[in-house]
Amino acid sequence: SDFNYQIRLKFLQSTWIQLRNEQDQIILSKLMNINDEYSYSVADNYRLTAGNAGNILVLINDKARGKAGKNGEVIESLIIHSDFDN
Question: How many helices and strands (H and E) does the chain possess?
């Protein structure tokens, strides 16, 4: 199940992000610095909004799956699923 999948966001450069839950409540809203990390479960279904998706490396169960998006790309309400591959 999705509870077995852990998402880890690793920040390659400083990047503003916001994570919201399914009730649209803000879980995290801050400027993340280089080498910061934030983890949550795939089952949380958090929606990720970020100022620069190319600065965010997505790992699932410690396996790098690529970046959240392109360099300089603003992403809005991205939900990362267990099959994420970029």
Answer: 0, 8
Taking the alpha carbons at both ends of the chain, their separation in whole angstroms is 21
Residue 5: phi and psi, rounded to 5, are -105, 120
CB 51 within 8 A of CB 74: yes
Q: How many CB atoms lie within 10 A of CB 66?
A: 12
- Kindly report, residue by residue over 9-56, the tens digit of the pLDDT: 999 999 999 999 999 999 999 999 999 999 999 999 999 999 999 999
Q: How far is CA 53 from the centre of its chain?
A: 9
Burial of 15 (0-12, 13-18, 19+ CB in 10 A): buried
Tell the residue number behind the tokens 């790098």, with chain if given: 64
